[in-house]
Amino acid sequence: xxxxxxxxxxxxxxxxxxxxxxxxxxxxxxxxxxxxxxxxxxxxxxxxxxxxxxxxxxxxxxxxxxxxxxxxxxxxxxxxxxxxxxxxxxxxxxxxxxxxxxxxxxxxxxxxxxxxxxxxxxxxxxxxxxxxxxxxxxxxxxxxxxxxxxxxxxxxxxxxxxxxxxxxxxxxxxxxxxxxxxxxxxxxxxxxxxxxxxxxxxxxxxxxxxxxxxxxxxxxxxxxxxxxxxxxxxxxxxxxxxxxxxxxxxxxxxxxxxxxxxxxxxxxxxxxxxxxxxxxxxxxxxxxxxxxxxxxxxxxxxxxxxxxxxxxxxxxxxxxxxxxxxxxxxxxxxxxxxxxxxxxxxxxxxxxxxxxxxxxxxxxxxxxxxxxxxxxxxxxxxxxxxxxxxxxxxxxxxxxxxxxxxxxxxxxxxxxxxxxxxxxxxxxxxxxxxxxxxxxxxxxxxxxxxxxxxxxxxxxxxxxxxxxxxxxxxxxxxxxxxxxxxxxxxxxxxxxxxxxxx
Length: 502
Hints:
The longest helix is centred in the N-terminal third of the chain and has 18 residues, at 2-19. The protein contains five helices and 37 strands. The chain is globular and about 80 Å long. By secondary structure, the chain is mainly beta. Strand 28 (344-350) and strand 29 form a beta hairpin.
């Protein structure tokens, strides 16, 4: 009996303490709150995980938040940070689809409460059209393959699960996971190391290709699926890196050579073509169009490396692709010409509705994650006009972007904030091709999570549903010596030698 009374008294005391944390006669500040993450004025989809946040200034020890919908409903959070109930948050967004949320914030500092001006969060009428994300998480490293892995994240909650980590394939570098149009039934990723391989998942089976084909002189890198699923375009790169000894840049990544080819998954055949394998040019970053009729890529005239690395500028181009014959045309169209812009275009990502190509623009080179000046740009395929996504860009590197299947939303990585680690941001594209203010990928306790993590998010992409992958089985397969050989079909390798003279 005594224990029950003691427990009851403890609960009553905790409740009383909680009540004393509620705002009492707060002093108006006349300004909006400085919160982390900055969710002020963002646009979000229904179904996204709660946008939990804290005061940016750690001198505040308690925050009290009320969120009210423009149509109906409200929720409340109180504590060291705003931790919203998952079910209440979901219902609030459902009830206010196409409307907005009004967020009222009070915070306590030195025992005194302060009241801030309200801010709004807009709830888009457009659904996200994705179950979640896939991404690689990597720690700071340049040569040593420290712990890294490919993960999936449920966007409606904070649940994250590993698909494959390199503790399951010891000593290996696990590279980027690329799905076909966000569908997890077809994906590819590359593994570097003693048991390197290119892993292709298709028709419910995993196939491990030999990592390197000597006829190409390199590995299969930077993939893009043809929507039909039979073909996958790759680049093949001889990549090097060097280090800056001054300024705001640390690492420079460049290719001493790079080409593009199309891989036939049914014939295990590499279709080489001189139109995208020119001797004095570096072709890179292939991307099939939404209908598979075009192959977009970037190309630059090769420089003397490493001395002239900062003179290498890429143009955005495309070449027609015939799915029936698996061949490219002999005519290349230049969409964004580096000679005119004086800049370098890289990482083209066509939207799945056929309207746009999103790409990154930097001063030079293609490895934009190390370039603070790199920004996101949008090319309108109907008009041929291009413009920067001003609301999405910052003073730090923006890069590695992807679209949702419905093309209303996109994600990208940015080093804004600390300038060191790449984090995932999401935003929408409006009817005029402009980006809404991006929001940081939600976490349960975002301030603690993002200030304590030592991992960067790399090559994120949307996934329509959870990926069915067995990491332990895949690790065993990678450690084995069983590989599928690839052959090179070079019948078109010299069909357009006149391109070499351009």
